[in-house]
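Q: Please design a sequence for this.
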C-alpha cells in the first residue's frame, strides 16, 4: 500500500477518535474534560469505591448525560455513517453511476412506508397514537421499518433475476420509491395530526433515537454486516472492468450483482430502521474517497469509505447538537449541507473533464 494511502488512512482513524471525543465533550450541557474522562474510565469521584460515598446531583446528571445520551449517539453515528457509505460505494459500483446512492432502489422508501403504515394507522384504527407508547412505540417503528425495507429489497432481488440491464433495474427502483411516496401521501391524508407529526419527525433522521439495548443490538448487527461486505471487494473490482471482461474472467454477472445489491440493501435497511432515512452521506462519501485516494481499487476504497463515512457522520452529529443549542437539529438538514456541495463539485469536475477531452 502506498505511503499516500497509509497516511490518509491514519488521518481518518485519528479524525474518528477526535470527533468521537468532541461528541462526548460538546453539547447543550458543559461537562469538563476531566469529568468526562473520570466518567468513562470510572476514576476519581466515579470510581467504584468512591460511589459508595454517594455522588452529588450534578455528578449523577453528568454521568447520565454521557452514558445515556452522548455515548449512544456517537456510537450510532459512527456505525450508521460507515454502513451508509459502504452501501453507497456498492451501489455506485454496480450501476456505474456517480449519482447512485443507498436509497436509489427504493429500499429507504420501503422502510418509510413500513413506518408510515404503523404510525399513521395506529391513531386512525387503534385510537392510540404510537408516539404515546414510549419504548414499545420505538421498537414498533424499528420492526416496521425493517419489514418494509426487506420487503422492497426482496422485490428488487426478484426483479434483478428477470431483467438484464442495470438501467432498467435502476428505473424500477425509482418507480418503487414513487409508489411508496404515493401510498404514504394517502395515509397522511386520512391520519390524525399527532401521528403525522410523529412520522415527519422520524423522517428527518436522528442518531439520538437509538439507546440502551437497541443501541447494543444495532452496533452488533453492523459489526457483523460491515466485515462481511469486505468479502465482495474482489467481485466489485471485477464489475468495474465491464460485463464482458468480468465474464471472461469467470465472474457470474447476475450472481455478483445480486450479492452486492443484497449486501447494500441490508445495510440501508438496518440503518434506516434505527436512525430513519439519512440522506447524502452514502452518496457523497465514495466521491470524497475517490478524490482523496485517487484510485478505483476497492481494496483501498472500501476501508477508506468506511472510515470517512464514520468520521463525517460524527461531524454531522456534532453540528446537529451545537453547544448552546437546546435540543438537536434534524440530521438530514446537516448532511444535506455537507453532501450537496460534494455532489455538485463532482458533477462540475466531470463536466470539465469531458470538455478537456473534447
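A: Design:
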Amino acid at each position: 500500500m502506498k505511503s499516500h494511502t497509509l497516511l490518509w488512512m491514519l488521518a481518518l482513524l485519528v479524525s474518528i477518535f477526535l470527533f468521537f471525543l468532541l461528541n462526548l465533550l460538546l453539547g447543550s450541557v458543559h461537562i469538563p474534560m476531566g469529568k468526562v474522562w473520570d466518567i468513562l474510565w470510572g476514576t476519581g469521584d466515579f470510581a467504584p469505591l468512591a460511589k459508595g460515598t454517594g455522588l452529588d446531583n450534578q455528578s449523577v446528571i453528568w454521568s447520565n448525560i454521557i452514558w445515556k445520551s452522548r455515548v449512544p449517539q456517537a456510537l450510532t453515528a459512527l456505525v450508521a455513517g460507515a454502513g451508509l457509505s459502504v452501501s453507497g460505494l456498492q451501489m455506485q459500483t454496480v450501476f456505474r453511476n456517480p449519482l447512485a446512492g443507498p436509497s436509489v432502489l427504493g429500499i429507504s422508501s420501503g422502510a418509510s412506508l413500513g413506518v408510515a403504515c404503523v404510525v399513521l394507522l395506529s391513531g386512525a384504527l387503534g385510537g392510540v397514537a404510537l408516539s404515546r407508547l414510549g419504548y414499545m412505540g420505538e421498537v414498533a417503528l424499528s420492526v416496521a421499518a425493517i419489514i418494509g425495507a426487506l420487503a422492497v429489497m426482496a422485490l428488487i432481488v426478484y426483479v434483478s433475476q428477470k431483467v438484464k440491464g442495470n438501467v432498467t433495474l435502476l428505473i424500477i427502483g425509482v418507480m418503487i420509491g414513487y409508489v411508496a411516496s404515493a401510498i404514504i401521501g394517502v395515509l397522511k391524508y386520512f391520519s390524525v395530526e399527532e401521528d403525522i407529526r410523529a412520522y415527519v419527525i422520524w423522517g428527518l433522521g436522528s442518531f439520538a433515537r437509538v439507546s440502551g439495548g437497541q443501541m447494543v443490538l444495532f452496533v452488533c448487527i453492523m459489526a457483523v454486516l460491515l466485515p462481511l461486505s469486505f468479502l465482495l471487494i474482489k467481485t466489485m473490482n471485477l464489475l468495474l472492468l465491464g460485463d464482458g471482461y468480468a465474464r471472461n474472467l469467470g465472474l457470474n454477472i447476475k450472481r455478483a450483482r445480486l450479492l452486492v445489491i443484497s449486501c447494500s440493501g441490508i445495510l440501508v435497511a438496518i440503518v434506516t430502521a434505527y436512525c430513519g432515512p439519512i440522506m447524502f452521506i452514502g452518496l457523497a462519501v465514495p466521491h470524497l474517497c475517490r478524490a482523496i485516494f485517487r484510485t478505483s481499487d476497492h481494496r483501498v476504497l472500501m476501508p477508506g469509505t468506511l472510515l470517512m463515512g464514520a468520521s463525517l457522520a460524527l461531524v454531522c452529529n456534532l453540528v446537529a447538537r451545537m453547544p448552546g443549542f437546546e435540543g438537536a437539529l434534524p440530521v438530514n438538514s446537516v448532511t444535506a449541507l455537507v453532501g450537496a456541495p460534494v455532489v455538485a463539485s463532482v458533477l462540475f469536475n466531470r463536466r470539465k473533464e469531458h470538455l478537456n477531452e473534447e
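Q: Thanks. Anything notable?
A: The mean pLDDT is 81. The two ends are 34 Å apart (CA to CA).
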